[in-house]
Amino acid sequence: MNVSFLDERDGLFIIMVNGKVKTITNDTYSQLKYKTYNGNRIFYDFGDGFKIQETYDNGIFNCYIGEAVLNIRDGKKIAEFVLDKNKSGYEKFIKEHYIEQHRTELLDKVIATFDDRVTKVKDGYIVDDMFKVDNKGTSYFATGMGTLDDTWKFLCTVAQGNIRKMSIDSEVGLLELDTTCMTILAKIGFFCNPDVHDSIFMNQLPQKIQKLLVDQDKVNGGI
């Protein structure tokens, strides 16, 4: 494709594509694409394994962190980092996307420390066959307590206390887990050791589960 930049006016770029004049929006992606790269695919290396490579679809990028590759569709944001030569901003942005795209893998490493009390399922994690925290951090309790007619009902819970930041090692280096990850972990931790004196929590549960939790608490030395 033969592209050349002609002019800019009123928030628009005027370009020529294969002999035809066109107008496009003047944004960071267009600035980089048509003023710097003359309409060609965008390649940029920030150094230290951080680089971007535009795919054959405009505005969609393969973003590299060492050997890991993420497909990012936010062309304007990527262009902003390149125009500013902002390596640190790009690194933070890409690592946040890495967490979003690999949240389950990262959480599974931590969940393994709960031994067999926590079971991974497609949409989240089940604790002691009684509670579930889905992949968005929403809580549920089992209405059938593990029977064949088991269904999950919404359970209003709030992550207990101040959620401390947690970092975990990954193929792209040390990552600080985001709020969603920390909420999931905090709720799983609470369900592993529920506060039976929390009336807001307990009153949402059927009597069968309430009794079981109280009995378990007594066995564990609770009051």
- SSE series: EEEHEEEEHHHEEEEEEEHHH
Please indicate the count of domains: 3
**What is the structural class?**
alpha+beta
For the sheet with most strands, the description reads: 5 strands, antiparallel
Give an overview of the whole structure.
The protein is α+β, with helices and mostly antiparallel strands. It folds into three domains: 1-40, no CATH class; 43-101, no CATH class; 105-219, no CATH class. It has seven helices and 14 strands. It has helices at 28-36, 75-84, 87-101, 103-111, 179-192, 199-202, 207-219; strands at residues 3-9, 12-17, 20-25, 43-47, 50-54, 61-65, 68-72, 118-121, 124-127, 131-134, 139-142, 152-155, 167-170, 173-176. It has a five-stranded antiparallel beta sheet with strand order 8-9-10-11-12, covered by helices on one side. It has a four-stranded antiparallel beta sheet with strand order 4-5-6-7, covered by helices on one side. Strand 8 and strand 9 (124-127) form a beta hairpin. The longest helix is centred in the middle third of the chain and has 15 residues, at 87-101. 22% of the residues are buried. The model has no long low-confidence stretch (mean pLDDT 87).
Which terms summarize this structure?
alpha+beta, four-stranded antiparallel β-sheet, 14 strands, five-stranded antiparallel β-sheet, 7 helices, single chain, about 30% strand, about 220 residues
